[in-house]
UniProtKB/TrEMBL annotation:
It is a multi-pass membrane protein. It is found in: Cell inner membrane; Cell membrane. This is Tol-Pal system protein TolQ. Part of the Tol-Pal system, which plays a role in outer membrane invagination during cell division and is important for maintaining outer membrane integrity. GO terms for biological process: bacteriocin transport; cell division; protein import. Keywords: Cell cycle, Cell division, Cell inner membrane, Cell membrane, Membrane, Transmembrane, Transmembrane helix. The lineage of its organism: Bacteria, Pseudomonadati, Pseudomonadota, Gammaproteobacteria, Methylococcales. InterPro entries: ExbB/TolQ_transport, MotA_ExbB_proton_chnl, Tol-Pal_TolQ. Belongs to the ExbB/TolQ family. Residues 84-208 form the MotA/TolQ/ExbB proton channel domain. It comes from Methylococcus capsulatus. The keyword Cell membrane applies. The Tol-Pal system is composed of five core proteins: the inner membrane proteins TolA, TolQ and TolR, the periplasmic protein TolB and the outer membrane protein Pal. They form a network linking the inner and outer membranes and the peptidoglycan layer. The gene is tolQ. The chain crosses the membrane at residues 20-38, 128-151, 171-193.
Length: 225
């Protein structure tokens, strides 16, 4: 309890510049944790829906029937489901046009799926740059507060004849608190960014593989009728 009170006292008695630094770091940390939890749920949902859709896709169901089922659930669809919907919709639209070559049908289908895939990856990448920024800049912001606090501590010694540790201890302590807050904001952001970037890369590979597999199936249909 005393240590908590001493830290609170150090924050209250810190110089205005150091207090601003601490406020920025606390705000960055709170926002980062909000993004971390939100992105965790988003990626986990994308992984679960991908697994469920792949099981459904490879169950032997007719693609036209699968498309009609998903079209009625489009508000709840995501990831692979939206990629499939975009590709199959464009495939059906182009095949209904008279005089269009199968190659043109497949090119249009691939383009529609690529647009949907990029859109889904953009959603997953959203807010990750903020975590990267917090992870890379927070230690330096905390270091700035540290330097400022130490500088004030030594500057206060110029007006006294005999310096003691008790005179510089508060300033150095508040400086170290700023350093600790910078690390507290940076470390979770860096860990989350690296972990989520890896997860998104895996999802991107999964989306790419599914796109190629679906194009192969549609390619056979385009050349059989």
């Amino acid at each position: 309890m005393n240590s908590e009170l001493s830290i609170i006292t150090l924050i209250k008695e810190a110089s205005p510049v150091v207090q601003i630094v601490m406020f920025i770091l606390v705000a960055a940390s709170v926002i980062s944790w909000t993004f971390i939890f939100g992105k965790y749920r988003e990626i986990r949902r994308a992984e679960q829906t991908s697994i469920a859709f792949e099981d459904r896709f490879w169950s032997g169901i007719d693609l036209a029937d699968l498309y009609r089922q998903l079209a009625t659930e489009s508000d709840d669809c995501g990831g692979l489901e939206l990629i499939f919907l975009a590709g199959f919709k464009e495939f059906g639209r182009l095949r209904q046009q008279s005089g269009i070559m199968p190659e043109a049908v497949m090119e249009g289908t691939q383009r529609a799926m690529r647009v949907a895939l990029n859109r889904e990856l953009d959603k997953l990448d959203e807010r990750l740059p903020f975590l990267a920024t917090v992870g890379s800049t927070s230690p330096y912001i905390g270091l700035f507060g540290t330097v400022w606090g130490i500088m004030n501590s030594f500057r206060s010694l110029g007006s006294v004849k005999q310096a003691t540790l008790a005179m510089v201890a508060p300033g150095i302590s508040e400086a170290l608190v700023a350093t600790a807050m910078g690390l507290f904001a940076a470390i979770p952001a860096v860990i989350a960014y690296n972990r989520y970037s890896t997860n998104i890369s895996r999802l991107a590979n999964r989306y790419e593989s599914f796109t190629e597999e679906l194009l192969s199936l549609l390619h056979r249909q385009a050349h059989t009728k």
